[in-house]
Known about the structure:
By secondary structure, this protein is an alpha/beta fold. It has a 19-stranded parallel beta sheet. Strands 4-5-6-3-7 form a five-stranded parallel beta sheet. Strands 8-10-9 form a three-stranded antiparallel beta sheet.
Amino acid sequence: MELLVEPIMGLVNCLGRSACTCLDYHLNFDEAVSDLGREWGVLNSRKEDINSIVKTEVLWGKEVKREVQGWLEHVEEINNEVQAIQEKIQRVKWYSRGCLGKLVCKKIKVMKKIREQGCFPDGLGVDRPATPGVIMSNDNPVGEDSAKEKIRGHLVGNEVRKIGVCGIGGVGKTTIMKHINDELVREAKFDKVIWVIVSYPLDVIKLQDNIAHAIAGDDRQRLPGGEDKERRAAELKSVMGRVRHVLILDDVWEVFSLIDMGIPEPTIQNGSKIVITSRSIDVCQNMDCEIVKVEPLSFQESFNLFLDKVGQHVLQIPSLEGILKLIVEECGGLPLAIVVIAESMKGEDNIEVWNNAPIELQKRVKSVTGSDQKIFKRLRFSYDRLNNFEIQSYFLYCSLFPEDYPFEREGLVEGWIDEGLIDVLPSRKAAYDRGHAFLNRLVKKCLLEKTVDWRGVDVFKMHDVVRDMAIKSIGPEFGYMVKIGMKLTKLPDECGWGNYLKKVSLAGNNISKIPLGLSPKCPTLSSLILSNNHNLSEISESFFEGMPELKVLDLFETGIEVLPNTISNLEKLSSMRLRQCEMLRYLPSLAKLTTLKKLDLNSSGIEVVPQGMEKLISLEYLDLSYCDNLEEIPMGMLSNLSNLQYLLVYKDLKIKGEEVARLSKLEKFEGAFNEIQGYNYFAKSQDFQILTDYYIGVGLTDYNIGVAPQVDVGLTGQKKSVININNCDLGEECMVLPDNLQNLQIKSCRNMRSNLNKAALLEKATELRSCDIRDCEDIKCVVDLNSSSYPVLDKLEELYLCRLPKLSVLVRVKGVATPLHVFSNLKMLLIIECSRMGKLLPLELLQVFQNLEQIYVYGCEQMEEIIASSDSDASSNKFTFPKLRRLKLGNLPQLKSICSAKGVIVCDSIEEITIWRCQELKRIPVQLPLLDNGQPSPPPRLEGIWIDEESKE
């Protein structure tokens, strides 16, 4: 041993101190690795604690502080780096331990520093600008002024705390309350106006979560407590007790305890109110509500509404007036029936059809008894008036899903394609176009309602009364069995499965197991929907044996763990939906399913690609996105699926560019490539150039890049044609960007050069609408007009620049003429933590920014001016932004002015101004419009100016 140590020490003495340090790292390697794991665990424990608090803060209506969000993002970056180090540790050679040990020790110091920074004594959130609620409708209800006035009187008065709005289905209860909801939101007399649909059967957890969604303004928000109803109730009570609110519970069918639900009892002290709409007076009375009954419309109100919907021109035919009155009389004063029937007759110019309409209506009304007779058969008339079996089938399909189910446009059309309702067409786009046409027709006929969800995405719903009519229309003679949301804990016995069945929906129940021995004989069954049975974990081998013609199997959001092997024998199967089956680990062989066109495994728990998948020669739709347990896709598998039109394989599943390039029929693609070279192979293929719907990641892909969640930018809609470049070296190989690229996201990339001119990324991206650049150290300006060539950004609408440490100016314009096209369509400009930027908008380019609608600037330490002033600017100037709606400035410690000292900003469209932690800013130079008497008044659209106390000082 001594013979070995002496030469080593001699070498160390010769090499000096650095070698000693390296030897220390080598000898203490194992201890350092242990310390790394320990510090990593402590850091992530802190992260989990903060995430838990953040969820509660968001639930209470707060925004997460930017510094907190930045800290969480920083921890995620460190986690990726530590994981990479852990992989190196597993395969490190003995002689390399010193170098790696040095890296380990350095990372430990970084993690300790980050952990120390993760203390936020002033809290994790800040109050967001008040938004009382959501506008529900643009239509004014017809008639029933007395009911509206009574409800309004109870809401503004102190005597009544709970109001029950009652009336038969279709009489207009929901329409009236939507109108009142909108008035309350606009008036902002309550902190929150909360609208929740309850429906039947009552689902306590769903109702609690929906109230939490409405308060937080985020459909993803969930109450803590899991399935523990008491804890959830306590959390909800705490949240609701913080705000003076109006809670509107629409479509209540059964009595429930507010206390058990976690809804605080409204009192004079807390200033809150509750409104319930229900078809049952007993329900409202048993919940201690003051009853307001909504009566049917008078004949004249009904007639006016009918004419408004069908068109006043029908009165030009003298012989029709009597017929019109007969039709209106048969509608019974029910607005829903009047609107639906009017729309079904709209555009009809055949006098014989008009003459026959009252007779058909009378037949239907007299053929049904009970309390529903006033509405169901009237709606059935409108359904029959579709006069097209195909579109009737589209409509009836929607009734196979739970009440108030929000269909997204693409998802609904996909369902129609799965069912074979849309004929085989040359492309998926052609099928979508056909589906959209029929969907729009159903909306125009008022058989489906179009609304917007929290993301700003169009969704379509069936009115509960229309859905009831549809279900009554699809009895056994249609071959349907529909038992949705009935709290079933087991499947019907075999005797309940007739051999006549074609479609069965048991969605939204509490079925947990399909036992051995249950084998319904359904030789003609083509569709089986078991979705939203969250506890369904097991299906017996025998269950599918008697379903040889099964084409559609929907197990969306079930707890299924393993599918039975008999699935392999369903050779007619064309669509299998296993989306969000998070417990699913294994699928049997799919080799025989050669007619399968759709396989949706999105967010499932599968660990390996199913055996025989390469033989699915008919497959057109494959979704493997968010399969977190799936580690790889076998090489060569994708290229065998030559009929694929729709392919989603992102998250951490990296694929080869040459495989995707062989998919000549691809129309929609979302996936990720490890490196630029693989992406370029695909991008240079002829088929990629005609692809219009894609989301492609290159490098270390981050599919949640988006806008920082604490920044409410008010954007809506989903983006297509997106490329996300993350952690790549842009100097190694030039990227090929398609001509039709609309959305570009760049994060943590090296060798970006000093500006986008030199990066040469955007030379061909002439259709670019949105550009998001963050965490790139090299970039100094976005566009340099002094350069001989620069990107054409005349269609760019959104520009996000985040954490660019060397960015000093947006556009370099010195000494050149101002081109009028650069940024000429820019609507949104967001700058976050660009520490060297001192002035935002160059004075020379102000004429270019006339379309700006929203400006957000946060955390730019050296930002002094929003509109740069010139050295000779001593006169009074007007800076016009005719479309500017929002101006938000936050945490800008050096900001002294928004524009020059004597200048003013003319922005008559301004809706909101928010100033936060801008201590040096002394003036908000917005020019106020003048009234006829010469007195200034607020801009007509201004909702408010919010300035925090620190900035006011």
